[in-house]
Amino acid sequence: MLAAIPSATLLGVDGLPVRVEVHVSNGLPGFTVVGLPDTACRESRDRVRAAVLSSGLKWPQKRITVNLAPSGLRKTGAGLDLAIALGVLAAAGEVPIEALAGIGLVGELGLDGRVRAVPGVLCMVPAIEAEVVVVPHGSYAEAAVIRGRHIRSVDHLRELVNTLRGNEPWPDAPATSDNEPEAVAGPDMADIRGQHLGRFAIEVAAAGGHHLLMLGPPGSGKTMLARRLVGLLPRLSTEQAVETTRAHSAAGLVLPCSGLITRPPWRAPHHNASIVGLVGGGGARLRPGEISCATNGVLFLDELAEFATPVLEALRQPLEEGVIRVTRAAASATFPARFLLIAAMNPCPCGDGGPPGSCRCTDYARARYERRLSGPLLDRFDLRLPVHRPDASDLVAEAAGEASVDVAARVAAVRVLSTARSGGTNAALTDRDLSRFASMNAGATRLIELRLRAGTLSARGYARVRRVARTLADLSGRDSELNEEDVATALELRAEFDALQGVAR
Question: What is the pTM of this model?
Fold first, then answer.
């Protein structure tokens, strides 16, 4: 007897439809899974049999063949367990085949018959070719985000079998909330003492979506500033929330109770991260990396110069294009990569945190340290500024700085203005958009031309300076052409690396 059940498998952040075909026939008892299953998928033979027996159901002592179609697509993970189990039971006559009409299944089975959540349900549900999709209780919240599908959830295989036999109604779905509960208040800008330039740069970066590099000695407050940036960003739009949640779901990260990430994510990988860990890839599944998990949020790279050079160079393409294309011999995938990069580093290996002239590094050590960052990578930072240790009077001052809620209000106003103007942030303005929305007066044009002729500003840097100048004008409440002050400030916030190191020391 033959049964066929629709399901899906995961490739990157995309779900691919899979048809689970189960044939039960007379012959020597056996269980074969074909159709390019990976190790986890092939091991479903043992999980499914144990789950069926633990649920008090009859296991057919016959020849069982499971085909995962299309046969040329690599199937990964344990998400096909539930479909295989129901296919076996239906083909053996334990469950009416007609009861499975129009139903798709995804979920992992425990040996006790429980149905467990699997990564990437949000990605796989749209790919399942069925009107009704059954998912584990633990995945219901994220599956319910998908519109146009009737989502059912189960907690145990026995529950699902009784429902399909008509003995019980469908189990009640877990309670979900459309609104994510308010998170515990994070670090506040009011905690920062002094650092007026750093505070301003953080506000500009948040308002315009500009990448920021901070260079300064240990203890100067670089990390403290960076951690407060994500609290200045507005909530994600519905489209952004789904895109970010898909990446987190495919990566197997814990999702909020509502099933949808509505706040910009914060990702801060350690400097020993590999290229695969940062960019994504790996085995046949091609898991998203930290870059994709930071989509529509902040990627913070502390101790930037301690990252391996190939890892840093892998940032160049996604910073420009907003996507990552991972290609392997067996498959390829495209991951989202629209993130705000904030980086911090010391001016030299020893940190140079003492008085002037106290650096203990040799010329070779400093040169080797500087070579970790290539010119093309540095050119992609819109903002590059030195961060000094705060003055003692600022540290002992009782008066708090401006609170995050006040800065976030200005950031939100600029974001609303830029979205209405061009459909995105100022950092995403195209060359055509710059001509329309970031025109410069004669003084500003003359200042830019001098830097271009001197060779201290590249064509890419020129466009980035104009984008930062547009954000500065928006923060000043002017939606007119850019003036000399806007451009001069943008240039000041984009210090050359050599000068940046000298000032930081």
Answer: 0.90
